[in-house]
Amino acid sequence: MDKLTIGQADDWHLHVRTGSILKMVIGHTAKQFGRAIIMPNLKPPVTTVEQALLYRQEILAALPQGSAFQPLMALYLTANTSVDEIKKVADAEHVHAFKLYPAGATTNSDAGVADIEAAYPLFAAMEKYRVPLLIHGEVTDAEHDIFDREKIFIDSKLSKLTQQFPALRIVVEHLTTQEAVQFVEAAGANVAATITPQHLLYNRNAILAGGIRPHYYCLPILKREHHRQTLLKAATSGNPKFFLGTDSAPHLTGMKENSCGCAGCYSAHAALELYAEAFEQAGALDKLEGFASFYGADFYGLPRNSASVTLEKQPWTVPEAYVGDDIAITPLRAGEELRWRLLAA
Ligand code: DOR
Ligand code: ZN
Questions:
Q1: Fewer C-beta within 10 Å: the chain N or C terminus?
Q2: Annotation says 247 is catalytic
Q3: Which tens digits make up the pLDDT trace of 113-137?
Q4: Are the C-beta atoms of residues 261 and 255 closer than 8 Å to each other?
Q5: What's the CA-to-centroid distance between 3 and ligand 2, angstroms?
Q6: Does any ligand 1 atom lie closer than 6 A to the CB of residue 199?
């Protein structure tokens, strides 16, 4: 197959930051997707509907002229989140979810939740008002091996949470392990998951074999090959619980190529191309449309996009960096060739 037309896709997990980074990256996402859930881990975090609506305005103002892209906002859950704010989200047209970062799990997560049990009254309110909870599923205790953090979170936190709140709508974000896939498969229809392009295409060798490659370092960290195989199977299974969320996370090149480099892969420049490569590798290009364009919208209770997009087999080379006035971002696959190309709408 040399050409693939699918319904316009959405990105159910995206970081765009603010200011000059936002201006540099938002055009990439607006070309690729109709909508995206915008992560709230800014500094300071986006914790109220009012702040989210201001952030949304900044994103809309940064869009290329004529773009119909819609940012779907999410709030950052903290120990100080009120039940009142949860009710506000339930009624807000442009705010769609809360994001739970275990404190210390990743970029700008210091304000996250240190004691998940203490937040149970908030989960009860989300369950009652049908507000989705998006979860970064990793424990943060220093004694745990970084490659085990997701599995331990599932065993020690997530299984209790789903037992306690059986109707709570949950998206387990950026799955990386076989255990996470099995957990989501076994849970009710109210529990779904996103999968990133990097976790479908790479295992942990990409970060460490032949030298340290910081642009493959993200959290949760890439895992062993058998986990990648399981993720690929889940994404291409046609099971509507698994849908597209890039976790594209722009950091300045200098902050990645650093003695203490930031976590995050930037993939917005070629998101659908990267997913197409993974699905083709699995012999399942026919399953891309459900994963990329249908299941996420269905889970969030939003209409599917009416437009369509076309990918063509037309090799192109990803730039070494995207460069602005005083910033540079190194994208995933910098300087390398991609097989697929998304045509302009
Ligand atoms: O690699 C990551 N980068 N994982 C996250 O959870 C956050 C993200 C970011 O904001 O940079
Ligand atoms: Zn993220």
A1: N
A2: yes
A3: 999 999 999 999 999 999 999 999 9
A4: yes
A5: 30
A6: no
